[in-house]
Amino acid sequence: MYGSAEVERMKADILIKGGHVVDPSQNLDAVTSVAITGNRIVPADNDVKATRTVDASGCYVFPGLIDFHTHLNHLGSGLGTTPDIMAASGVTSAVDAGSTGCLNFPLFMNGTLERSILRLKAYLSVYSLGIGGGGFAEDFDPSRFDEKRISDTFSRYSDSLLGLKIRLSIPLTNSIEPLERMIEIAERLGTSVCVHTTNPPC
Three-state SS string across the chain, please? Predict the structure, then answer.
């Protein structure tokens, strides 16, 4: 990152002036200014020369936000949204919460995750077809969780997958056996789990 003295000697592309900047990575929570030079965001004084100046007085200025719980399988589900529309609300990174399983994750990867302008990661549904929406519920029979394909999917897409996901809520299931089976699989894979509980059976 450039120091403010270096920024003063250069011309920034954009100066965001006088906003309340909140940046936990820099331990910053104060009214100040930042400049954008190329693809770098740098600290700046108000007198930095810039091609464009934005007066952010009375506004908050954040780094890109992370939306940790999204459903982005808009090409193959009744409840997915297009990820790129989230950029308009300041989201630059997002996590899909198990919209797809081991059978349809490759299509989701190729059709959505790799094409987005956002940085995207995903949880893999322990159910092979993920969450379909439209009244189509997952199959919570633990004997149908395909550990071999799940393992193969994690091996192939290890950079994109964060762990396994399950919805554990009544009336979807009255048992915790699906959760126990998912945890067994996750422990063998050395990965984490994400559990959606609205009205849990335990």
Answer: CCCHHHHHCCCEEEEEEEEEEEEHHHCEEEEEEEEEECCEEEEECCCCCEEEEEECCCCEECCCEEEEEECCCCCCCCCCCCHHHHHHHCEEEEEEECCCCCCCHHHHHHHCHHHCCCEEEEEEECCCCCCCECCECCCCCHHHCCHHHHHHHHHHCCCCEEEEEEECCCCCCCCCHHHHHHHHHHHHHCCEEEEECCCCCC
